[in-house]
Amino acid sequence: MSIQFETELxxxxxxxxxARDYTVKGEINGVDLVASHPEKETVLVELKKSFxxxxxxxxxxxxxxxxxxxxxxxxxxxxxxxxNQHHNSVRKLCRRLGLGLIQVYFGPRxxxxxxxxxxxxxxxxxxxxxxxALHDEFTNRKGDPNPGGTAGRKIMTAYRQQVLQxxxxxxxxxxxxxxxxxxxxxxKNAASIVQKNHYGWFExxxxxxxxxxxxxxxxxxxxxxxGSGK
Length: 230
Prior knowledge:
By secondary structure, the chain is an alpha+beta fold. The chain folds into 2 domains: 7-117, Trna Endonuclease, Chain: A, domain 1, CATH 3.40.1350; 128-141 and 153-224, Winged helix-like DNA-binding domain superfamily/Winged helix DNA-binding domain (Arc Repressor Mutant, subunit A, Orthogonal Bundle). It is built from 9 helices and 9 strands. The chain has helices at residues 7-18, 53-62, 82-85, 87-97, 128-140, 158-173, 178-185, 190-196, 214-224; strands at 23-28, 31-36, 43-47, 68-74, 100-106, 111-117, 176-177, 202-206, 209-212. Helix 6 (158-173) crosses helix 9 (214-224).
């Protein structure tokens, strides 16, 4: 359910905070809602009809007044709504900025206040496996084959470069046994590349011997001509 005015958010959030022993007043020195508690830090809430950059910037400004700042918006069923389109990203952004996020659901019979994010110092969850993958891709990729911002074409990854190297070896030397491919390319994972055959470029001729498929030949030719392949 959409709302016409930001003031419609005020009463549900005021009731929510009063039920938690806050004293609530509206429009204090330009802040939409201020909630005072005898034992906790003052809470500030900025109310908007939708999530926007303007709301974020307003919230950031309010952090100079209190560490407990919430952004409040109504729930919406509209697919174009930013919070619906990018729910997890918006929550992550609020956490990174130290802002809280409140969503108010206006139902036909009841109104519900949901706190999606509480304000506080941002503590990113470390992803060592992703960090290692990023470092490995950077280190193993030869040259700089992809201009930043590339879209609509195949990215040349380090693995693809390795597959092309193995394919070039097989194309040059004909039906190759795996030890020979490993020896020529100097790649320890050459056998794994051929056997896993991720792109479908190789086919087994006999035990331990492989050659290029027609697709593999086409891809190698396309690469030689300066294309990116499929």
